[in-house]
Design a protein that fits this description.
By secondary structure, the chain is mostly helical. It has helices at 15-45, 50-70, 78-88, 101-114. The protein has four helices and no strands.
């Protein structure tokens, strides 16, 4: 049975994998921030009262917390981070091309576990 325990333990990263992981991580971060920005801009276009500005501020604050919680670039946690990003649609399997097949399989498995 697959579980979150598959992400525990020492994971080694080659130089090439580190570069691939960094690119994928940065790309996901950019996609996520672009989506947040677009939503905030759309919200601002409909502002008609001071309470609407507060709503935009609350939206941005909440998403800043989420981004800060998710985007942690530590090799020891990166497979788990990529699993969540894949589940949420911020990273794709194509973004991870260059990682060992076992790592990609773990990430895909983890993404499906997050759905449960």
């Amino acid at each position: 049975m697959e579980s979150i325990k598959q992400f525990e333990g020492e994971i080694t990263w080659t130089s090439t994998e580190k570069k691939t992981a960094r690119r994928a991580f940065d790309k996901a971060f950019e996609r996520h921030c672009t989506a947040i920005t677009a939503e905030a801009k759309q919200m601002l276009e409909t502002v008609t009262a001071p309470s609407d500005v507060r709503r935009v501020q609350e939206y941005l604050s909440e998403h800043l917390k989420t981004v800060d919680r998710i985007y942690q670039y530590r090799y020891s946690a990166l497979l788990l981070v990529f699993s969540r990003l894949m589940r949420d649609g911020w990273v794709t399997e194509a973004d991870l091309a260059g990682l060992q097949p076992e790592k990609i399989a773990s990430i895909k498995c983890g993404a499906s576990l997050f759905d449960r």
